[in-house]
Amino acid sequence: LGRAVSKARGAYVADKDQFAAVLAREEIGADASHGERLLAAGRLVGAATIVEGRFRRSDDAVEIETWMHRAGAGGVQEVGRAQGPLSGLMEIQAQLLEQLLRGLDVDAETEFEPAPPSAGQPSLAAQKKFVLARQAYLQGDYESAIGLAGEAVELDPEFVEPVGFIGVCCARLGRYDEAAEQYRRCESAAQRRNDQRLLVETQANMGVMHYFKGEYAQAHDYYQAAARTAEPIGLTCELAQIHNNLGFVLVRLGRRAEAEVAFLRSIETHKAYGALVSLVGPYNGMGNVLLDQQRHEEARGYYRRALALAQESADRVNVGASHMYLGRCAALQGRFADAKHEFAMALNAMEETSFWHGLARLYEYMADMNLQLGNLSEIERCADKRIELARRHSNRRTEEAAWLQKAEAYRRADRAEDAAACLAKAGACNDSNPTLKPEAGST
Fold first, then answer.
1. Residue 441 predicted with pLDDT over 50
2. Which of 119, 244, 271 has its CA nearest to residue 194?
C-alpha cells in the first residue's frame, strides 16, 4: 500500500525501517501514549500521518482493517476495512488503497497495479526475512543483511526488492561484480514488469556502486538517468535522495556550484515534508561545499545538525561520517585537539560497521591532519590503512590517491627517493586502469 501511495503525485512516503529505528529509541515519547509516540517518531522521518492495521484470518478468509494517526487531528481516524479469500488478496489491497487515498486526501486517480502472475505477492515469511535484513543494514552489518535478504529470495524467488537490496550491500562491501549482477536482475525484472519505480531504484543504485568504485563520471550518468525516470512519475522522495547522491558525485568531479544546487534541492524537498532524519546526507554535503569555500563556521553548523539527526536514528555510518567531517573542519581551522577528538569518535563508530568507503575517507582526512602537523609516522600508518582497504575492495582510484598522499609526506620530509617510489606506485594504479583519471582538485 505504501508503494502504491508513493505513486500519487506529491506524496512522500517515509522509510518504514528508518521509522521503526527511530521509534525504538527510548527517548521517543517514553511517557507518551502509543499514538503520541508514533507521531513523535514520524516527525523525524517526515511522516505527518502514520497508518496502522491488523488482519484476522480464518482458514482461507482474511479481513484487514486500517486506521491512521494524523498530526493535529487529536485522535485515531478509521480508514476502512476489506475482506475476502486469500486468493483475492490483490483485490483486497485495491479496496484498501481506495479507502486510504480517500482518507489521505491525495490524488484519487492513482490506481493499484496488481503484479503479474509471475511476480505474485511476496510471502509473509519472505517479507519477515527482508525486514530483518533491513534492520541489520541500519546497524552496518552488511554480511548479515545479505544473508537474510538471500533467505527471503530463496523463500520467494519472485520477490525482487531483496535482490536490489543485496546489490546495495555488496556495493558497500566492495563486491562490485556481485552488486552489478544483482542490479542486472532488477533491471530485467523492471523492464519485464514495466515497473518504472524499480528502474529508478536500480539506476540510482548503479550510481552508488560506481561512486564507491571511484568512477564518478559513470555514477553521474546513472544518477541523471534515474532523475529523468523519476521526475515525470512524481517519485518525490526518491528524487530527493538522488539529488543528495548526485551532489557528492559533483563535488568529486570538481563541479561545486552544481553540487550546491543538488544538495539544496534535496534539503528543500525533505524539509517540505518534514523528513528531518533524511537531511543528514545533504546537510553533510552542504557542509563540504561550504568547507571548500573556507566558510568553516557555516560548514560546522551543517555538520552538527547532521550529527544530531544521525544520532536520532541510531545510524552508525552517518554518525561516524558526521564526526569525520567535523574533524576535518577542525583540522583545517588548526583546532587539532578538537580534530583528534572528532576523528576518534568517527573511528569508533565506523569500525563497528562494514562500510569500508567511509573508513577509507576517514583515514584520508586523518593523514591530511598529520601532514599539517608534520607527523610522518601517523601519515604512513593512515595511508597504509587506506591502501589496504582500497586493494581489498578493488578501488584503484583510492589506492592511487593514498600513494600520492604518502609521496607528498616524504617530499616534505626531504626523502626524495621514497617520494619517487610512491609516485611510481600511484602511476601504476592509474596505468593499470586507463579509465581512471586523477580527481579534479586532487593533490
1. no
2. 119
